[in-house]
Amino acid sequence: MLMKTRVTPVVFFLILLASAVPAQELLTATAFFDRVSDHYGGIEDYSAQITITNEDSVSYGTLLYRKPNFIRIDFERPEDQILVSDGERLQVYIPRYNVVLSQQLRARSDESLAALAGERGLALLRRNYSIAYLDSPAMVPLEDQSAEMVTKLRLNWRNTGEGYRQLVLSIGEDLLIRRITGVTADYREVQFDFRNVEINPGIPASRFEYRGPASANTFYDFLFEGEG
After folding, report:
1. Residue 26 CB partners (closer than 8 Å, separation 6+)
2. Where are the beta strands (DSSP E) in 67-188?
3. Per-residue pLDDT reduced to its tens digit, 24-42
4. Which CATH superfamily, name and number, covers 26-220?
5. Which backbone phi and psi does 54 adopt, to 5 degrees?
6. For 128-149, what is the mean pLDDT?
7. Number of other CB atoms surrounding residue 172 within 10 Å
8. Residue 4, SS3?
9. What is the model's pTM?
10. Where are the domains of the chain?
């Protein structure tokens, strides 16, 4: 009986502690990632302001996404540069040189694009990366002195065939990805920021049809030979 009277208050205290933990903290990192993926599964299309930062440059513009893996970025910097992909072919117009780079995508290249865009890409990340909280399940500022609070997940590659050895996803309360920070296979860091995201605005498929200027030279399969 003496042992029982000593243990019971401890058990009661632990129950109180458990009840005080926010529901999100009870989720494993993988379960939280799945919630994010499910949320993106209900998104047919979206637009956002995107900023891409790497070690020696910053680019920004307007990103359009449409299921299953249509992507278009109209850049303001570099000015008038355009990137369009329908999941099968990537086209990049570079006005500075008046050229269009057109690349048929392999499966792995398709994945790297889709990973930034929506449901399909998140499913590929789920399969090809291990998932953990960066530090803890608690929401933290997006960056130092930021008022924006996010949950941060760390994804590590399962094999060396992936484009990024590590990704850190910063996810807002609305379950939208606010920032992706990636470390490439050769240890270069690149950061993607998504702002002013508008969900399901009804972007037509025609926005992803692209032909460069008639005066531009087009170079096909400039990265590797397309798969026949």
Report:
1. none
2. 70-77, 82-85, 89-94, 99-104, 129-133, 140-141, 149-157, 164-171, 177-184
3. 446 899 999 999 999 999 9
4. Lipoprotein localisation LolA/LolB/LppX (2.50.20.10)
5. -125, -165
6. 95
7. 18
8. helix
9. 0.82
10. 26-220
**Identity of the amino acid at 217:** N
Reported as a pLDDT band with limits 50, 70 and 90, residue 69 is confident
Gap between the Cα atoms of 177 and 63, Å rounded: 14
- In the numeric block, the tokens 């690349």 are attached to 103
Q: Give the pair of three-digit tokens for residue 82.
A: 């355009």
Q: Please report the sign of the dihedral spanned by the C-alpha atoms of residue 111, residue 184, residue 27, residue 24.
A: negative
CB 66 within 8 A of CB 44: yes
Question: From CA 179, how far away is CA 193, in angstroms rounded?
Answer: 4
CA 2 centroid distance within chain: 56
Maximum distance among all Cα pairs of the chain, rounded to whole angstroms: 91
What band does 105 get if pLDDT is binned at 50, 70 and 90? confident
Query: Contact at 8 Å (CB) between 177 and 170?
Result: yes
68's CB contacts (< 8 A; 6+ apart) are: 87, 118, 119, 120
Residues counted in the chain:
228
CA 43 → CA 63, 83, 94, 167, 175, distances in Å? 15, 21, 30, 22, 12
Amino acid in position 121: G
Cβ atoms < 10 Å from Cβ of 195: 12
Q: Which residue has the tokens 């060396």?
A: 160
- Kindly state the tokens that stand for 85: 């992909």
